[in-house]
Amino acid sequence: GPLRVVVIVLTAGLTWILVSLLLGTQSGFSRLQQLLSSPDNPSTAEPRPRRYKCGLPQPCPELHLAFRLVSGAANVIGPKICLEDKMLMSSVKNNVGRGLNIALVNGEWMNEETRRIFSELGSSVAKELGFRDSWVFVGAKGVQDKSPFEQHTKNSKSTNKYEGWPEALEIEGCIPQKKADGQ
Protein backbone atom coordinates (compact mmCIF):
# COMPACT_ATOMS: atom_id res chain seq x y z
CA GLY A 1 0.00 0.00 0.00
CA PRO A 2 1.01 3.45 1.10
CA LEU A 3 4.61 2.49 1.95
CA ARG A 4 5.09 1.21 -1.60
CA VAL A 5 3.85 4.53 -3.02
CA VAL A 6 6.24 6.51 -0.75
CA VAL A 7 9.22 4.34 -1.81
CA ILE A 8 8.34 4.76 -5.51
CA VAL A 9 7.94 8.54 -5.12
CA LEU A 10 11.22 8.83 -3.18
CA THR A 11 13.04 6.66 -5.74
CA ALA A 12 11.64 8.71 -8.62
CA GLY A 13 12.51 11.97 -6.83
CA LEU A 14 16.07 10.90 -6.01
CA THR A 15 16.52 9.63 -9.57
CA TRP A 16 15.27 12.97 -10.91
CA ILE A 17 17.69 14.90 -8.66
CA LEU A 18 20.61 12.63 -9.58
CA VAL A 19 19.87 12.89 -13.31
CA SER A 20 19.52 16.69 -13.16
CA LEU A 21 22.81 16.95 -11.25
CA LEU A 22 24.60 14.76 -13.75
CA LEU A 23 23.09 16.30 -16.84
CA GLY A 24 22.56 19.86 -15.60
CA THR A 25 20.68 22.34 -17.72
CA GLN A 26 23.16 22.03 -20.60
CA SER A 27 23.03 19.34 -23.27
CA GLY A 28 23.67 16.88 -20.50
CA PHE A 29 26.52 14.76 -21.75
CA SER A 30 29.26 17.32 -21.14
CA ARG A 31 28.40 17.44 -17.43
CA LEU A 32 28.35 13.64 -17.28
CA GLN A 33 31.75 13.53 -18.99
CA GLN A 34 33.13 16.02 -16.45
CA LEU A 35 32.00 13.88 -13.54
CA LEU A 36 33.23 10.64 -15.08
CA SER A 37 36.61 11.96 -16.30
CA SER A 38 39.60 10.98 -14.21
CA PRO A 39 41.17 13.64 -11.98
CA ASP A 40 44.56 12.88 -13.61
CA ASN A 41 43.25 14.02 -16.99
CA PRO A 42 41.11 17.12 -16.39
CA SER A 43 39.43 18.60 -19.44
CA THR A 44 40.72 22.06 -18.47
CA ALA A 45 44.38 21.05 -18.83
CA GLU A 46 46.50 23.34 -20.98
CA PRO A 47 47.03 22.05 -24.51
CA ARG A 48 50.53 21.01 -25.56
CA PRO A 49 52.62 23.86 -26.90
CA ARG A 50 52.46 23.92 -30.66
CA ARG A 51 55.58 22.77 -32.47
CA TYR A 52 56.58 23.98 -35.89
CA LYS A 53 58.92 22.62 -38.56
CA CYS A 54 61.75 20.47 -37.14
CA GLY A 55 60.18 20.85 -33.69
CA LEU A 56 60.94 24.57 -33.36
CA PRO A 57 58.89 26.46 -30.74
CA GLN A 58 58.04 29.24 -33.25
CA PRO A 59 57.65 29.39 -37.00
CA CYS A 60 60.46 30.79 -39.11
CA PRO A 61 59.93 34.11 -40.91
CA GLU A 62 59.32 34.14 -44.62
CA LEU A 63 62.36 33.29 -46.77
CA HIS A 64 63.98 31.36 -43.88
CA LEU A 65 64.49 27.61 -43.51
CA ALA A 66 63.83 25.75 -40.25
CA PHE A 67 66.60 23.42 -39.08
CA ARG A 68 67.73 21.30 -36.15
CA LEU A 69 71.11 19.57 -35.79
CA VAL A 70 72.15 17.06 -33.13
CA SER A 71 75.79 15.97 -33.05
CA GLY A 72 75.30 12.55 -31.52
CA ALA A 73 77.34 11.05 -28.70
CA ALA A 74 79.18 7.72 -28.77
CA ASN A 75 76.69 4.98 -29.59
CA VAL A 76 74.10 6.45 -27.21
CA ILE A 77 72.65 9.33 -29.23
CA GLY A 78 72.72 9.25 -33.01
CA PRO A 79 73.35 12.40 -35.06
CA LYS A 80 70.36 14.02 -36.75
CA ILE A 81 69.87 16.67 -39.38
CA CYS A 82 66.40 18.10 -39.96
CA LEU A 83 65.72 20.77 -42.58
CA GLU A 84 62.26 22.19 -43.29
CA ASP A 85 60.62 19.32 -41.36
CA LYS A 86 62.42 16.67 -43.41
CA MET A 87 64.76 14.37 -41.51
CA LEU A 88 67.75 14.28 -43.85
CA MET A 89 70.01 12.17 -41.64
CA SER A 90 69.30 10.03 -38.57
CA SER A 91 69.95 6.64 -37.04
CA VAL A 92 66.38 5.68 -37.92
CA LYS A 93 67.07 6.37 -41.61
CA ASN A 94 70.31 4.40 -41.20
CA ASN A 95 72.29 7.00 -43.15
CA VAL A 96 74.67 8.28 -40.44
CA GLY A 97 77.95 6.91 -39.22
CA ARG A 98 81.22 7.71 -37.52
CA GLY A 99 83.11 10.85 -38.42
CA LEU A 100 81.71 13.95 -40.04
CA ASN A 101 78.22 13.36 -41.37
CA ILE A 102 78.36 15.43 -44.52
CA ALA A 103 79.05 14.39 -48.08
CA LEU A 104 82.60 13.38 -49.04
CA VAL A 105 84.34 14.34 -45.79
CA ASN A 106 85.92 11.90 -43.35
CA GLY A 107 86.12 13.58 -39.94
CA GLU A 108 89.04 11.51 -38.72
CA TRP A 109 91.28 12.67 -41.53
CA MET A 110 90.11 16.26 -42.01
CA ASN A 111 93.04 18.03 -43.69
CA GLU A 112 94.00 21.71 -43.70
CA GLU A 113 92.14 22.38 -46.95
CA THR A 114 88.90 21.02 -45.47
CA ARG A 115 89.40 23.10 -42.33
CA ARG A 116 90.00 26.20 -44.49
CA ILE A 117 86.81 25.55 -46.46
CA PHE A 118 84.77 25.24 -43.25
CA SER A 119 86.32 28.49 -42.02
CA GLU A 120 85.30 30.19 -45.28
CA LEU A 121 81.75 28.90 -44.70
CA GLY A 122 81.71 30.74 -41.36
CA SER A 123 83.16 28.29 -38.83
CA SER A 124 85.21 29.79 -36.03
CA VAL A 125 86.44 26.44 -34.63
CA ALA A 126 87.06 24.21 -37.69
CA LYS A 127 90.81 24.72 -37.38
CA GLU A 128 90.75 23.48 -33.76
CA LEU A 129 88.64 20.33 -34.22
CA GLY A 130 90.15 17.16 -32.84
CA PHE A 131 89.43 13.46 -32.65
CA ARG A 132 85.99 12.68 -31.14
CA ASP A 133 85.10 16.33 -30.55
CA SER A 134 81.39 17.15 -30.70
CA TRP A 135 80.65 19.86 -33.27
CA VAL A 136 77.51 21.17 -34.93
CA PHE A 137 77.72 23.89 -37.57
CA VAL A 138 75.59 25.55 -40.22
CA GLY A 139 77.39 27.82 -42.65
CA ALA A 140 77.09 29.19 -46.16
CA LYS A 141 79.34 30.27 -48.97
CA GLY A 142 80.12 33.97 -48.85
CA VAL A 143 79.35 34.46 -45.15
CA GLN A 144 80.80 37.82 -44.10
CA ASP A 145 81.10 37.08 -40.37
CA LYS A 146 81.31 33.91 -38.37
CA SER A 147 78.18 31.74 -38.33
CA PRO A 148 75.90 32.15 -35.29
CA PHE A 149 74.99 28.47 -35.71
CA GLU A 150 78.01 26.67 -34.28
CA GLN A 151 78.77 24.77 -31.07
CA HIS A 152 81.87 22.82 -30.13
CA THR A 153 82.80 20.60 -27.18
CA LYS A 154 86.36 19.34 -26.94
CA ASN A 155 86.97 15.64 -26.29
CA SER A 156 88.43 15.55 -22.78
CA LYS A 157 88.66 12.60 -20.38
CA SER A 158 87.92 14.86 -17.42
CA THR A 159 84.72 16.37 -18.86
CA ASN A 160 83.35 13.69 -21.22
CA LYS A 161 79.77 12.75 -20.43
CA TYR A 162 80.01 9.30 -22.02
CA GLU A 163 83.00 6.99 -21.77
CA GLY A 164 85.50 8.49 -24.18
CA TRP A 165 82.97 10.84 -25.78
CA PRO A 166 81.75 14.38 -25.04
CA GLU A 167 78.03 15.09 -24.72
CA ALA A 168 75.77 15.58 -27.73
CA LEU A 169 75.30 19.13 -28.97
CA GLU A 170 72.12 20.52 -30.48
CA ILE A 171 71.33 23.70 -32.37
CA GLU A 172 68.14 24.83 -34.00
CA GLY A 173 66.88 27.93 -35.68
CA CYS A 174 66.00 29.66 -38.91
CA ILE A 175 68.51 30.08 -41.73
CA PRO A 176 68.03 32.90 -44.25
CA GLN A 177 67.22 31.37 -47.61
CA LYS A 178 69.71 32.32 -50.30
CA LYS A 179 68.13 33.26 -53.61
CA ALA A 180 69.24 31.32 -56.68
CA ASP A 181 69.93 34.44 -58.75
CA GLY A 182 72.37 35.81 -56.14
CA GLN A 183 70.14 38.68 -54.95
Automatic annotation (TrEMBL):
It comes from the Eukaryota. The keyword Transport does not apply. The chain crosses the membrane at residues 6-24. The keyword GTP-binding does not apply. It is found in: Secreted. GO terms for molecular function: carbohydrate binding. Keywords: Disulfide bond, Lectin, Membrane, Secreted, Signal, Transmembrane, Transmembrane helix. PROSITE patterns: GG_LECTIN. GO terms for cellular component: extracellular region. Pfam families: ILEI (PF15711). Residues 105-142 form the ILEI/PANDER domain. PANTHER family: UNCHARACTERIZED FAM3 (PTHR14592). Belongs to the FAM3 family. This is Protein FAM3A. It comes from Chelonia mydas (Green sea-turtle).
